[in-house]
């Protein structure tokens, strides 16, 4: 029974974080799993522990993809496949995207009152391994004459962030594939020479996609900062404000951003 509850919590967290991002609360996860918030806290001391449990394996998979790409028989095909695959995974999982890119754009850690030491260790270990694979990936593609000579391995981070900037557009709600168009332009620009532009994989934004400009500030969940307490019903927020624990009711929110 306990294992079944844990599996339900992990499945719910996977879905909730993918949809809402890491600003979602543990009350949101508990509601999706059909359990009480106390059941989540009995298994995970805070949100960072849950995030680590969910995504540690994803980081290992990411490293394996980079290693495989760096060893590809065709260096350029390996480069393109890796860029496309990693971009797709980040684009389709908001929580994973916030975790990966947030390590470079904001302070990591989503749990109140505790330093994200284990998350930082995961970031550091993964980054060290990826640096080795990215360097080999870039240098092999350059040696084959398929990648611009002025590109450095660290450029891959900036290029990745530029591709995923499209996901902040309101139009991304109806055109989640837009990142692929930007990725197509980026990959074409990385070639040292070509006889003509490569056809882009998806069409451009239309006026209908863009819609009318917002009349004022939005409170939509998708536009809240990643470090905020994410979206949730009023009942979910109230449930998490007073978290039942084995020691009684604690009125402090336990899973908010560090320093909030």
Please state the oligomeric state of the protein chains shown.
single chain
**Share of β-strand residues:** under 5%
Strand order of the largest sheet: 1-2
Low-confidence stretches: 216-260
Largest sheet: 2 strands, antiparallel
Distance between the termini: 35 Å
Q: For the CA atoms, what is the radius of gyration?
A: 21 Å
Global shape: globular
Run of helices and strands: HHHHHHHHHHHEE
Based on the model shown, name its key terms.
transcription, two-stranded antiparallel ribbon, 2 strands, mainly alpha, 260 residues, single chain, disordered C terminus, 11 helices, HTH-type_TetR-like_transc_reg
Structure description:
The chain is mainly alpha-helical. 58% of the residues lie in helices and 2% in strands. The chain has helices spanning 2-20, 26-33, 37-43, 47-70, 75-92, 94-105, 117-143, 155-164, 178-190, 207-210, 234-241, and strands spanning 243-245, 248-250. The protein has a two-stranded antiparallel sheet with strand order 1-2. β1 (243-245) and β2 (248-250) form a beta hairpin. The radius of gyration is 21 Å and the shape is globular. Residues 3-62 form the HTH tetR-type domain. Residues 25-44 bind DNA. Residues 190-260 are annotated as: Disordered.
Compact overview of the structure:
The protein is mainly α and 260 residues long. The protein has helices at residues 2-20, 26-33, 37-43, 47-70, 75-92, 94-105, 117-143, 155-164, 178-190, 207-210, 234-241; strands at 243-245, 248-250.
């Amino acid at each position: 029974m306990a294992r079944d509850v844990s599996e339900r919590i992990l499945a719910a967290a996977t879905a909730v974080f993918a949809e809402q991002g890491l600003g979602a609360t543990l009350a949101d996860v508990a509601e999706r799993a059909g359990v009480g918030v106390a059941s989540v806290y009995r298994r995970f001391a805070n949100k960072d522990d849950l995030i680590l449990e969910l995504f540690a394996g994803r980081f290992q998979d990411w490293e394996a993809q980079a290693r495989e790409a760096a060893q590809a028989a065709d260096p350029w095909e390996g480069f393109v496949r890796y860029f496309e695959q990693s971009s797709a995974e980040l684009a389709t999982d908001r929580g994973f995207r916030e975790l990966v890119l947030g390590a470079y754009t904001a302070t990591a850690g989503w749990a109140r009152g505790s330093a994200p030491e284990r998350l930082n260790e995961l970031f550091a270990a993964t980054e060290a391994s990826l640096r080795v694979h990215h360097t080999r990936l870039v240098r092999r593609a350059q040696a084959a004459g398929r990648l611009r000579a002025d590109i450095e391995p660290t450029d891959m981070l900036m290029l990745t962030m530029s591709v995923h900037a499209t996901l902040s557009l309101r139009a991304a709600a109806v055109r989640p594939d837009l990142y692929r168009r930007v990725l197509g332009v980026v990959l074409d620009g990385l070639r040292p020479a070509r006889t003509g532009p490569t056809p882009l994989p998806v069409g451009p934004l239309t006026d209908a996609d863009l819609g009318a400009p917002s009349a004022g500030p939005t409170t939509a969940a998708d536009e809240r900062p990643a470090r905020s307490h994410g979206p949730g019903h009023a009942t979910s927020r109230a449930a998490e404000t007073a978290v039942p624990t084995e020691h009684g009711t604690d009125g402090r929110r336990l899973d908010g951003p560090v320093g909030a």
